[in-house]
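for the record, two folds in this file. i put them one after another cuz i was lazy. first one right below, seq on top, structure tokens after. the second one comes after a little note so u can tell where it starts
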Amino acid sequence: MVQRLFFVAGIVSLLSFFTYSARALAKERKEGSLAFWHSMPVSDSKAIAIKLLVALVVIPLFSSLLLLFIDATVWIVAMWVMPADMLAENALSLVAIGLHWGQFIATMAAMSLALLPVACIIFCTSQLTDHPLLVLFVVITLVKLISSMLFNSMVIGAWINKVSNLAFNILTSEHPWQTLANVGTITLLGLLILSIGIFKASVHLRSGD
């Protein structure tokens, strides 16, 4: 039950992340509000950084509050209907709720690091197309297919799957930070550099230069 709630809250956070990331910058372009924001004393880099903060920090925090609320509700109801020994057996206590919430926050932090390059890519793509998630799916599928045909190997496709599924693998792992680290230092450093480069590209596109 506890792990199921943990997984559901994580999925809510993940779905909210993709929904928000796909619309955050595209909405400005569609509604024509970008000119208004450019008139404000906020640089394009700061505006995109704030949206990244929402996608990678605020959304997981709201999801953690959802988990905290559900856990607290289950605990309160359980205290009315279960004897003390059953509460202890099912780890239903205020301390257990706090530990569960802390575990979720730690998992969300690891997921946010894994999702940083994904968010930057979606932000950049969303300024070029109205369907960034669909475009990314098609591009990833084509890259895996073409690389397999050219090199007669699934190594590149396997690596792409490993990186693109990293956030979900972290969510379902008993050791989220270890799962993140298992990707490898070189890969993580490369993803960080990629994130910075695509972030700058997003700033350039948003500025209209």
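(here's the note) second protein begins now
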Amino acid sequence: MAAGFLLAFGLASAVAVQILLTGHLDLPDWAVQYLPGMKAGFLIAAASMLLAHRWLGYSAGDLGLAARPRNGFPYGGLGAAAVAYLGMWIGFEVMRLFPSPGYAPPGRTSAGEQLLANLHGALVEETLLLALPMAVMTRLRWSWQAQLTVLVALRVPFHLYYGYGALALGLIWMSGYVLVYRRTRLVWPFMLAHFAYNSAHADYLPPGVRPLLGLTLCVGGVVAVIRLIRQLGPRSGVSR
């Protein structure tokens, strides 16, 4: 898991820290746009999952690739994706309240480049930074507090070019993830949520569709959270 993180996100994390500390980047824009971790991330994620299965004995269910029903989630996987999206959206909105180094990453000029980058975020990040660490921590019976700490520590470094607000982003974003993942044990809702959030800011979707996509998932997330609270109420003694 550590090797996968370093290979896929190590250089991006170093770049983000430099931007945080200096407010600029010494590397040329083209080098940032085509970081090796981005290009190789799909293979690294696939290899990491395969090795976790072969060497560590994790099943598809352990890795979030197959249903392991434990506690029903409101509206199933789509409800889980909506809540994950809502947590991500809130995290980014709160992050924008903090000062930023002011660095703007070079934009990806084509719809194909944006689509590839968004697929990388959905498939690679959620594999290496959610499914694998949660499989390990679940086997070790770590508490949710420990799980949250690890997920934040993994997700924040390569987002630090946003500024110290990335810490708030990571905490809010991963709190939603921990809440949902511990109940679903499925990774695809998080991949869907991540891809949908990035796609809501991408050129390959019509301008009218982007805000509608985000609004639909945010409203769905609020509805699912309300229903989840109602489900948990009698069990926790909140309601009688």
